[in-house]
Design goal:
The protein has helices at 3-9, 42-46, 53-62, 73-78, 85-108, 123-150, 170-180, 184-190, 196-222, 228-250, 255-259. It is an all-alpha fold. The protein has 11 helices and no strands.
Length: 276
């Protein structure tokens, strides 16, 4: 038999031949296939508390110092990762700081005679919480509603650019306004000093610092609206009125009332015996 025939009939080593294996079907693990969470589940709210301490401290500092945060701060930072952790603790701390400091201011401003009995006003906690919660809820909603109504982004051809115009989400506005109240925590402690000039100076300083940050951060979106002037004036005025309202209601005592001392003791009765 010839050599060619032996090669055809002989056994050969097939180790070098790759044998294809059937591929396993891999299930799609993309986020779109994950079940959607309901707002009635605790897991739904975990995404709003996904932040560390350094970020919270950074956002608090940015809310107090004008021009520290860039004009794109709202879009590149708060819009990407809005949180409710910082705003929750800022507003909660401010509520109790105002309530405690307001009672201390009331204690310092009264005459402590033997006939005067001072008592703690627990209603200040509910008053302060109502005012703060309404402010941090209504103002973001009003700004978001006006921008939604008055801004048209249909002509935006490059939305991925950092400088591209956009309308901030309601959650990012709530986050921004929550942090904006941080400046009033130290201010409320200083309001206990019963000096009217100092109290008003603190009102203007706190409102200017925090209000400037609000307007600077919101300006890229505000200037797109045809009501931009009204929005800017409204934001600045509301922030000043809030600070003035805190001071006047919880801390301030008019000079005439502070100078007058009210004595509740009965007036002495002088009796004269007539003789005759």
């Amino acid at each position: 038999m010839s050599t060619a025939a032996d090669d055809l009939l002989g056994f050969k080593d097939f180790d070098d031949i790759a044998v294809s294996q059937p591929k396993k079907v891999i299930e799609d693990e993309s986020p779109s296939s994950s079940p959607k969470l309901s707002m009635f589940q605790i897991e739904y709210y975990q995404q709003f508390f996904n932040i560390d301490t350094n970020d919270v401290v950074e956002r608090i500092i940015n809310s107090m110092i004008p021009k520290r945060a860039s004009a794109s701060y709202l879009k590149t930072k708060l819009e990407v990762n809005p949180d409710l952790y910082g705003p929750f603790w800022v507003t909660t701390t401010l509520i109790f700081t105002i309530a405690i400091s307001g009672n201390l201011a009331n204690f310092f401003q009264h005459d402590h005679s033997s006939k005067f009995h001072w008592h703690y006003n627990f209603h200040l906690v509910s008053y302060a919480s109502t005012c703060i919660i309404l402010y941090t809820s209504l103002m973001p909603f009003l700004i978001w509603s006006v921008l939604k109504y008055s801004v048209d982004l249909n002509d935006d051809t490059n939305p991925d650019l950092e400088s591209a115009p956009y309308i901030p989400s309601l959650l990012s506005l709530i986050c921004l306004y929550g942090y904006s109240l941080a400046v009033y925590i130290p201010v409320s402690v200083l309001w206990t000093i019963p000096l009217s000039v100092l109290q008003w100076l603190l009102v203007m300083t706190g409102a200017f610092l925090s209000g400037s940050v609000l307007i600077n951060v919101l300006m890229p979106s505000l200037k797109l609206s045809k009501y931009s002037i009204f929005l800017i004036v409204g934001i600045a005025s509301a922030h000043f009125v809030l600070a003035a309202g805190f001071m006047l209601y919880f801390f301030h005592v008019p000079a005439t009332a502070a100078a007058s001392v009210i004595v509740n003791a009965p007036s002495p009765v002088v009796s004269m015996n007539a003789t005759g």
